[in-house]
Amino acid sequence: MAQRYGGQFSPDGSSKGPVKSPMKGRRPQRGRARTNILYVAALPLVFFSFGDPALEMAQKLVAFALIAGAAWLTRGGLEAEEAYEARTIARRPAIPRKLFGSILIGLGVALATFNGAIIGPAIYGVIGMVLHLVAFGLDPMSNKSAEGIDEFQTDRVARAVDEAERHLKAMKEAISGTKDRVLIARVDQFQATAREMFRTVENDPRDLTAARKYLGVYLLGAKDAALKFADLFSKTGDTSAKEDFTALLDDLEANFTAKNQKLLSDSRTDLDIEIDVLRDRLQREGIRLN
Predict the structure, then answer these.
(1) Residue of 194, 153, 155 whose CA lies nearest to 171
(2) What share of the chain in percent tops pLDDT 70?
(3) For residue range 120-153, what is the model confidence (pLDDT) as tens digits?
């Protein structure tokens, strides 16, 4: 069913300001199409396995499962890398999915080409691993931190942002289940606003104390509200509940925007103070030298 999309330039003028793109500050994910090619390339193993003796059929099906598992792991690794690259402070992925994907590719190719000999399939497997690594690269292998920030502060910020991202992900999944494109787009816009605060805190971890309630309590409440609303709306299609939830998002976004602006303003004030102090010291040094 077609749905009317509200916005800044819609006849009802429902938007309260410029719409933030959910992709702001984020790059398109690289390599997604190539992971689909891995699935397609493995399909002949399934089609050509039927009619073979049982052992050969099992060999081809297991090879297909290994290559399909490699594609699934690789896609997860690309998503983890995308999230890692988008952040100023981030911990390396706990599981090197792309590396494990290359290993599965090697095993799948070796098994698919196995004909009783060992050397040939082993060489094909190594070639498959190398090509996978060339195509997709390695996973991030080190934690990323801002210059001049100690490891303790980096870890605190990374944990807080990880928790906040989990709340946003659960919120998006819940609203996506309603199939309402207007609501999905509205949640995307709120997430873009929230992530602006995440980047502010990552750039200056001293802001974490002031922003912790927003990254934790408020986003947890937003996630719980999204889950309850999605359940109710999917069952009843209650338009008043939709209006209330949209109003909640408006209030949250306004508060996040205001708080983020205050954090940025405080950071600018701190910078001005540092500059003034340094100028005073230089002037004093100059006076003593004279």
Answers:
(1) 194
(2) 78
(3) 999 999 999 999 999 898 888 877 766 656 567 7
* Cα-to-chain-centroid distance, residue 90: 11
Cα separation, 203 vs 196, in Å, equals 11
Asked if 143 and 161 touch (Cβ cutoff 8 Å), the reply is no
Q: Say yes or no: 121 and 228 in one domain.
A: no
Give residue 184's domain range.
151-289
* Cβ partners under 8 Å of residue 45, min gap 6: 60, 61, 63, 64, 67, 112
222 membership: H or E segment, kind and range: helix 219-236
56-65 tens-digit pLDDT: 889 989 999 9
User: Please, what is the Cα angle at 30 between 26 and 35, to 5 degrees?
Assistant: 140
Residue labelled with tokens 């890398």: 81
Establish if 27 belongs to a structural domain.
no
